[in-house]
Amino acid sequence: MISARRSTLLLAFTSSRARKHIVFVGLCLVLASACNSSSNGADPGRGGALSGGAGRPENGAGGAVTTTNGGSSHAGTSGSGGLVEIGGGTTSGSGGTAGAVIGAAGARSSAGNGNDGGASGNGDAGAANGGVPNDGSAGSGEGGDGNPISDPGLAFQRIQAAHHHACGVRANGSVACWGLAQIAAPTPTTGTFQYLTLGDYHTCGLKLDNTPECWGSAAVPPPAGEFLELRANAVGTCGIQRDGTLACWGGDLPGSAALPTGTFSHLSAERALSVCGVRSDGSVACFGDRDLGAVPEPANYQSVYVGGYDACGMRADNTVSCWGAHSPNPQWSSPSGAFVELAVNSYYACGRRANGAVECWGTSPGANPEGTFQSISAGNFSSCGVRTNGTLTCWGYGYQLPPGVSGTFSSVSVGDAHACAIRSDGTAVCWGDTTFDQAVGCTERIGCTWVH
């Protein structure tokens, strides 16, 4: 491993291509053991804020490469120019911009004609993960385009927007977060995640081994053991343990000191101050800061969805009932018929039917969106959905989709005042309010674009 001091020396000389090459060769004479070693780099990188996916190490003439990755490294044949990566990534373009990326996502510097065996092109250095360097063997090929999503393992598969930040899970199970700094970082650099759940000031994720991990300014270490499901509320997190019982940690909600008993199959709490769970017998139990009132009968629910002041449940026959602060209002009377998906926010609810049509009800939901949909998401005031043709549309209180958000998409998530979606190519795009630095860290380096 190259020491922090030596890495700093290397990064200090990234101002020009010639000086970088001279310093790199000079350091190689001193650090022969680091420059001549070779490894397939099978161990995942650790220590940074973002997994870089599968790195591809290569050697330049007269110099070697150390690379960090979030997956595996691959060997090739000799290249030219030389490249040093600290933090890992996918590519460095031919004649690409040299520079350092230092911080939550690690550090990186490059020089010369690097290669990764990808398509030729000029570009900046790719994504970094700030992990432990792995030495790679010599490689050859043309420089890639510097886009981290050129590695399929870095494509986003899941995304979620919250109050002040957003996070995504990549195809390789690594995670990336952006937004208000004390919430988005430090992002975990080890482990493979199934999905994430976001509160107002913290994030928790369920790993592939079914253990949870939490981070952010309000994060509290989760209990030991395996979990079947995790759901973050505004101030804490609750989960269904392996035996079906509930466990909660973090900020205390009323009722969390004496949790509902029984075995549970589903939870909902996203960003709300209330938590509801469906027991294995179909009954629903709710607790938290807001009294949502009695759950409508018959109690044969399969899932539940909590908004700010209300909740809706889907029964075994896919019919829907809602309850909470607004339930006495006739506008909150649930439509008849079956639904396959629900989305509930602070003022209204929307449901997607089997034929893809979306119908909304509640306090001023606006007109139902046109078209057929494959998924929907509700934020604090508005909702968005991905149509069956991949196009995106939004509706609700004072909400418009920016003209720059175009193309086809696979999923969308609406937060309190901003939203994020995954494009068909695996990149992320976000838009909306930036008052609380929601856009900070959403950069092309991690495959994210903010549209103002």
Main traits of this protein?
7% helix, 452 residues, 4 helices, 2 domains, disordered N terminus, mainly beta, 27 strands, 4-stranded mixed beta sheet, Methylamine Dehydrogenase, Chain H
Brief account:
With 452 residues, this protein is mainly β. The chain has helices spanning 4-11, 17-30, 32-36, 181-184; strands at 66-67, 134-135, 156-161, 165-170, 175-179, 193-198, 203-207, 212-215, 227-232, 236-241, 246-250, 264-268, 274-279, 284-288, 301-306, 310-315, 320-324, 341-344, 348-352, 358-362, 373-378, 382-387, 392-396, 409-414, 418-423, 428-432, 448-451.
Task: Describe this structure as you would to a colleague.
This protein is mainly β. The chain folds into two domains: 143 residues, no CATH class; 297 residues, Regulator of chromosome condensation 1/beta-lactamase-inhibitor protein II (Methylamine Dehydrogenase, Chain H). 7% of the residues lie in helices and 31% in strands. It contains four helices and 27 strands. Strands 24-25-26-27 form a four-stranded mixed beta sheet, with no helix packed on it. Strands 3-4-5 form a three-stranded antiparallel beta sheet. The two termini are 41 Å apart. The relative contact order is 0.09. The N terminus is likely disordered.
